[in-house]
Structures are given as structure tokens and as C-alpha cells.
């Protein structure tokens, strides 16, 4: 059998009048087709969106691929299990390699959050056209760097990130990958919070994928809008686009969007009048639960 140019699967020629032509009908496009099918797909797409943003003149771009086991929705990034740190850096390198492949003529500077990490990973990250530095260096970047990739800066590095960003020339780009600038606000002064918010406001989100408990995800890919996807009860394994936004919603607003969707999708006829509500966790408890799986590529996250 052969597929013709119109997407039709035709049987081989035959004299049998009952021979049939099997038509291939492609699946209709869905909003959730933008979601990645695997972790590798997410990182590759993040690199592509970042490269596109840089081509459009964006000087400061941010990428966040927030895995459930590395990130808590209320307090921020965490490394709760042994080996989480090493895995974080492996994924960061995968993103970097994908970005470099898209910009082969560019010189890259990789900036680690501290000297210890830079020294530990120096042997694994050395490559032609790539220079390594740490955020604590006197001069983390050079005027010869085309793209500076800052990996996982922590809350203590907010001021240093600001100095790095201000010190770059007009033809240099800064890409911040999975910043860990927020780790809860306990013990963090108002000035530090304002500094962090002002710093992040200067970045354009090139790619963002964040789990909403085990119910969906918050997604953005440059140059698109922020999108909230939640499980499609009528189509297992798929997700419905329930809201599009012009800016990143705060966590509390995101929870309200989820609660509203769950309430309206349940419908008035789903329970008898006067019936007691079913016992179990409420919407906020469900949504706030941190899980290791991320939507359609949950299995790949554990590899």
C-alpha cells in the first residue's frame, strides 16, 4: 500500500470490484499540540523559542522548565532527593547544546551560580566556542561573548545577576535558564524582593512550562501568550486550553482559574440537590500538590 499526496491509503491494483480504498484522515489540530511529548522535546523547543527571541532582538530571555521534583509551587525550587542537583545540570547542558546547535556561529559564555559548581562541571562542559565562568567572578562575561547563558542563579545572586545584565553590550544577549531566585520569602527583606522583581521584569519569557499539581500546566512559548491547560475529561491524556493571558498570572490567580474551570465543567446536574459534597481534598489541595509527572510526558521525567 502507498500513501498518495492527498493523504489517502490506496490498495494495490486489483480486478476485485469489492476492493476498497482506505483513506487516512489526519487527526485534527488541538490547542494542546504545543505541549511537549517528552522532556527532550521540551528542552529542544525551549532552545528553538529562545533562538527565535534572540533573532527578534530580545536581549534578555528567560527559560523555565519546572520539573515537579525540582520545584514547589508555593516556595520555589528545591533539590529534595539525592542526585537532583546532578540531574539539573545534565538537563541544563542539554538545553545549552540544543541552543548552540541553532546558533553555530555564536560564541557562548556559560555562567554558573558559584565557583564550586563551575569547578565541578568544567571538564564536562568544555567545548569549542564555549567559555565558562561563575557569577562570583570579577568579570563573568567578556565583550567577545555573543550569548551569555546564566544557569540556575540562586537568591543570594540577585544583585550579581543585575550587575551582569547591566554590564553587557547592546549586541550581547543574556539567557537565564531556570533561575532559582525565589526560595520562599521567609527571611528575605523587602528591598531584596523588589530587586528580584525589578530584575525579572526586564526579561522576556522565551519558554515556560510549569506543572499545576497533577491537573495541567502553565505554558508559554515565544512569541505566544501565557496559556493555562487543564486535563480534558473527555479525552484521556489530552489537555484543554482554559485561559490565555497577556502576562504571567500570580500563583493565587492561577489557582482561581483552576477552581473556576473545575466548578463550571462539573455542571449543575452532576449532583442531586441537597446532596452532601463528596469527601476528599478540595481544589486548592489538589492543585497545590507537587508531583513528579508533567502532563503528557510524565514517564520521561523519571528517567
Automatic annotation (TrEMBL):
<dbReference type="InterPro" id="IPR018962">
    <property type="entry name" value="DUF1995"/>
</dbReference>
<feature type="domain" description="DUF1995">
    <location>
        <begin position="36"/>
        <end position="254"/>
    </location>
</feature>
<protein>
    <recommendedName>
        <fullName>DUF1995 domain-containing protein</fullName>
    </recommendedName>
</protein>
<dbReference type="InterPro" id="IPR053021">
    <property type="entry name" value="Chloroplast_ADK"/>
</dbReference>
<dbReference type="Pfam" id="PF09353">
    <property type="entry name" value="DUF1995"/>
</dbReference>
Amino acid at each position: 500500500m502507498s500513501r498518495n499526496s492527498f493523504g489517502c491509503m490506496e490498495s494495490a491494483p486489483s480486478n476485485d470490484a469489492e476492493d476498497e480504498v482506505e483513506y487516512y484522515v489526519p487527526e485534527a489540530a488541538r490547542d494542546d499540540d504545543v505541549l511537549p511529548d517528552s522532556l527532550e522535546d521540551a528542552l529542544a523547543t525551549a532552545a528553538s523559542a529562545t533562538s527565535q527571541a534572540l533573532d527578534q532582538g530580545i536581549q534578555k530571555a528567560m527559560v523555565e522548565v519546572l520539573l515537579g521534583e525540582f520545584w514547589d509551587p508555593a516556595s520555589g525550587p528545591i533539590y529534595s532527593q539525592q542526585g537532583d542537583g546532578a540531574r539539573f545540570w545534565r538537563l541544563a547542558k542539554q538545553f545549552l547544546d540544543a541552543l548552540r546547535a541553532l546558533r553555530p556561529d555564536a560564541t557562548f559564555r556559560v555562567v554558573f551560580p558559584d565557583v564550586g559548581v563551575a569547578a565541578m562541571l568544567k571538564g564536562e562542559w568544555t567545548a569549542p566556542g564555549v567559555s565558562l565562568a561563575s557569577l562570583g567572578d570579577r568579570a563573568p562575561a567578556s565583550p567577545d561573548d555573543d550569548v551569555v547563558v546564566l544557569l540556575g542563579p540562586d537568591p543570594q545572586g540577585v544583585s550579581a545577576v543585575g550587575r551582569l545584565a547591566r554590564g553587557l553590550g547592546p549586541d550581547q544577549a543574556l539567557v537565564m535558564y531556570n533561575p532559582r531566585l525565589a526560595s520562599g520569602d521567609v527571611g528575605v527583606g523587602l528591598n531584596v524582593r523588589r530587586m528580584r522583581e525589578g530584575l525579572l521584569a526586564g526579561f522576556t519569557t522565551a519558554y515556560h512550562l510549569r506543572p499545576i499539581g497533577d491537573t495541567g500546566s502553565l505554558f508559554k512559548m515565544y512569541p505566544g501568550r501565557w496559556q493555562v491547560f487543564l486535563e480534558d475529561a473527555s479525552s484521556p491524556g489530552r489537555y484543554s486550553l482554559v485561559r490565555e493571558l497577556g502576562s504571567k498570572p500570580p500563583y493565587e490567580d492561577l489557582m482561581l482559574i483552576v477552581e473556576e474551570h473545575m466548578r463550571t465543567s462539573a455542571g449543575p446536574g452532576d449532583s442531586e440537590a441537597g446532596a452532601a459534597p463528596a469527601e476528599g481534598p478540595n481544589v486548592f489541595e489538589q492543585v497545590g500538590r507537587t508531583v513528579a509527572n508533567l502532563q503528557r510526558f510524565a514517564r520521561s521525567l523519571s528517567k
